[in-house]
Write a structure and sequence with these properties.
alpha+beta; Beta-galactosidase, Chain A, domain 5; 4 domains; 8-stranded antiparallel sheet; 33 strands
């Protein structure tokens, strides 16, 4: 028996006390005395049905109560229509029913009519195929909204008349379904963030926090005390909003703006966890919007006693500059919370649901503009040609392509072959599904478990380090290994990116991808190769150090913005096509027979129009750089140093590839020299040459964790030096090398 069912059993037989939904007489968060004091201070509930019901409850203003009752007499909860939209109407009616229940004018006949209408709506919802079996009620935006539609009416009518016998099995169904959803949060996002995008997150969470709070006040079981996702809602916004106040762009993000649901979620973090950072985001940041998904929540949840705190004023000990979200396996690094701060996201983890993209080991960068982006744009219809052949695919992201011309990809239930982008596999119908629960995940791990963040290390104010392994995201027929390591040094604004890629066939074309908004400038002279993206006031200068003789390809511009290198029949690399965006205003199907065929295969011969797009302020980009080795081999190493700064401010430091044995390394003048293990195995011994220019710090990764190493510096102007230092638990070691200068370094484990 789940905890929800046990809670229901414990309260069985006792008449419910009212009010009981979102508020209660003696509730520590929304007790009547607290709310009355808030009302007496001058704050007011919303001027709508639940707001007027609450005003009557707090102020005993019979005129306002009669106004609410008159609306209930004259109208009805909706019947029919899309439950994904009408769920909120059932929440409003349920709250009004509960909050007005003791009003003298709420006569028995009206109560019975409304109670039966609410119950009929809940029963109809729970009889739908998607809701009939609790173990298949997924942690997904539709399922959670449907569940909320049913849960609120069932709680509202509890104890009313003779309805409990009919309600009892329905309540058990709701509680078992909610338990399945809550258990899945522990798999997917135990410490916040979300798998499908922040857009789908707010749709899902807005209803989930309402149903959770309703259960707490009406049934005594508090999901927020048992499932850690809830207490991490505030931190999700704190870290995953870019410095301009818009949400992270990963996955199907069609609306990268805050909206009415975000307001409720920030208020929930204030209400339940007294979060001062969320109070700042909601009230002081300038990011908030005036709309609320359920306006009465502004009065209930935006606790005025919680004092806002500006995160930009907090030091790094109080507020770390990085946050890892396990489950979804997303890492956010930021150097502050000011408008000119740098923000980086690095993702490598499982696949949980259809609105995720095939983009493990991808990164994005923002600083005063969109410098490294998820390219493409969201859809007018989910399975549009652009969406399936470009936007959700690896080719649209800052990751790696390995092109096997024989590889096949397919849409949906193998409905139609998709273009070969050389990217991560799309070979299961489950990539159009949502993981059902933990058991489902474990039974089909080969489908879901695509990537792993194997190491994350962070020394405040000094460096950030992570290693992602996305080998499982690619077909094993073409790829043996793809790991990516990132080191970010905030003082210098440098991001070191090291990739080790091992294919099964040396002829498979490999391409390192970086997408930007505007046409990049490529250096015409010198070694290493370099290219630069600009957007807004920001600039990204990339030094391509490995492979040693790269082929740097510029793609983009009119007719090539969203180019996929192969078609559905494979073909040689580069024989593919562009997959243009659908017009945001919608319109007739394209005239191209091939594109028309794709639309009609999915939606039937009757489709003639493309629906209007939801996308707002999406930055689709139009350009990318591809870096490929000039000599085909099975194993290739890619090493890039990315300077992140203000427009016109990069390129002031020397950057050099370090000569090394068992390492691949890059040195930046006046900043870090970084060595990565080149073999993919922990290094027990190796060598490297420090550059002729001065570096501050040497950082070495890929060592044996918690093992002491002897490090010697030879051929220096000063006497030879030897010292011992232990690698940390992530196999990382750092040394101050400001006094050493040019030298040959040897490192060996003391076993």
């Amino acid at each position: 028996m789940g905890a929800l069912a046990a809670s229901a059993l414990a309260r069985a037989g006792s008449p419910p006390r009212r009010p009981r939904m979102l508020i209660a007489e003696e509730d520590p968060f929304c007790g009547l005395a607290l709310l009355k004091a808030r009302y007496q201070s001058g704050l007011r509930p919303s001027d709508d049905l639940p707001g007027r019901a609450l005003t009557w409850l707090l102020a005993h203003d019979d005129a306002i109560g009669e106004h609410a009752l008159a609306e209930m007499r004259a109208t009805h909860p909706p019947t029919g229509g899309r439950a994904s939209r009408t769920w909120l109407d059932y929440v409003r009616w349920s709250l009004a029913f509960d909050w007005l229940y003791t009003h003298p004018g709420f006569d028995a006949a009206l109560k019975d009519r409304v109670a039966h209408e609410l119950l009929d709506g809940a029963a109809t919802m729970l009889a739908a195929p998607d809701m009939r079996y609790p173990a298949r009620v997924y942690y997904h935006n539709y399922s959670v909204r449907f569940l909320t539609l049913a849960a609120f009416p069932l709680a509202a009518v509890e104890g009313h008349g003779d309805l409990d016998a009919r309600c009892r099995p329905l309540r058990a169904q709701v509680e078992d379904s909610l338990w399945n959803v809550l258990q899945t949060t522990n798999l997917v996002n135990p410490e916040g963030s979300y798998h499908e995008s922040l857009d789908y997150m707010r749709i899902t969470w807005a209803s989930l926090v309402m149903i959770a709070e309703m259960h707490r006040t009406s049934g005594g079981f508090d999901p927020a005390q048992h499932f850690s996702m809830f207490r991490n809602i505030g931190d999700t916004y704190l870290y995953k909003l870019l410095p301009d106040g818009t949400p992270s762009r990963e996955n199907d993000q069609e609306w990268p703006l805050l909206d009415s649901r975000d307001m409720a979620l920030l208020a929930y973090a204030i209400h339940r966890f007294k979060d001062p950072w969320s109070a700042w985001l909601l009230r002081k940041s300038g990011f908030a919007v005036p709309e609320w998904i359920l306006p009465v929540l502004k009065f209930l949840w935006d606790d005025p006693e919680v004092v806002p705190r500006n995160p930009a004023l907090a030091d790094e000990r109080e507020l770390p500059r990085q946050r890892y979200f396990p489950g979804v396996s997303q890492l956010v690094i930021r150097d502050g919370w000011k408008p000119d701060s740098t923000w980086i996201e690095f993702d490598c983890g499982p696949y949980f649901a259809k609105h995720q993209h095939l983009d493990q080991n991808q990164f994005t960068i923002y600083r005063k503009g969109y410098l490294a982006i998820d390219s493409g744009a969201d859809y007018t219809e989910i399975e549009s040609p652009h969406y399936l052949n470009y936007y959700r695919r690896t080719v649209a992201h800052n990751s790696m392509l390995v092109y096997d011309p024989r590889e096949t990809f397919f849409w949906g239930d193998n409905t139609l072959p998709a273009a070969n982008d050389g990217g991560q596999r799309m070979d299961s119908v489950r990539y159009w599904n949502t993981v059902q629960n933990r058991a489902d995940f474990e039974q089909t791990r080969d489908v879901w478990n695509l990537g792993e963040m194997r190491h994350i290390d962070y020394e405040p104010g000094h460096y950030h380090y992570a290693l992602g392994d996305a080998t499982g995201a690619y077909s094993p027929h073409k790829l043996k290994r793809f790991t990516r390591e990132l080191v970010y040094t905030p003082d210098a604004g440098m991001l070191y990116v090291f990739d080790r890629v091992v294919s099964t066939d040396p002829s498979f074309h490999k391409a390192w991808l970086l997408h930007g908004v505007n046409q990049p400038q490529i250096s015409g002279e010198g070694t290493p190769a370099a290219f630069q993206f600009n957007d807004g006031g920001g600039e990204l200068l990339v030094h391509s150090l490995l492979p040693r003789e790269p082929v740097v390809t510029l793609r983009g511009g009119p007719g090539f913005e969203f180019f996929t290198p192969g078609d559905e029949h494979g073909g040689a690399w580069g024989t593919g096509q562009n997959w243009p965006l659908d017009p945001p205003e919608g319109g007739p199907l394209p005239t191209d027979p091939r594109l028309r065929h794709m639309w009609k295969v999915f939606y039937g011969d009757g489709i003639t129009e493309i629906e209007k797009s939801n996308r707002q302020r999406v930055v689709p980009g139009a350009w990318r750089i591809e870096v490929s080795p000039s000599i085909p081999t099975e194993e290739d190493l890619f090493l890039h140093v990315l300077e992140i700064g203000d427009r016109g401010a990069t390129g002031k430091r020397r950057v050099e590839l370090m000569r090394s044995f068992h390492f691949a390394g890059a040195a930046v003048e006046g900043a870090f020299a970084v060595l990565f293990a080149s073999s993919g195995e922990p290094v027990t011994a190796g060598e490297a040459t420090l550059p002729h220019f001065d570096c501050d710090t040497l950082l070495v990764t890929g060592l044996q964790p918690e093992v002491f190493y002897e490090i010697g510096f030879f051929e220096t102007k000063a006497p030879d030096q030897r010292l011992q230092k232990r690698a940390n638990s992530n196999g990382v070691l750092t040394l101050d090398v400001r006094s050493i200068g040019y030298a040959r370094m040897r490192i060996a484990a003391l076993m």
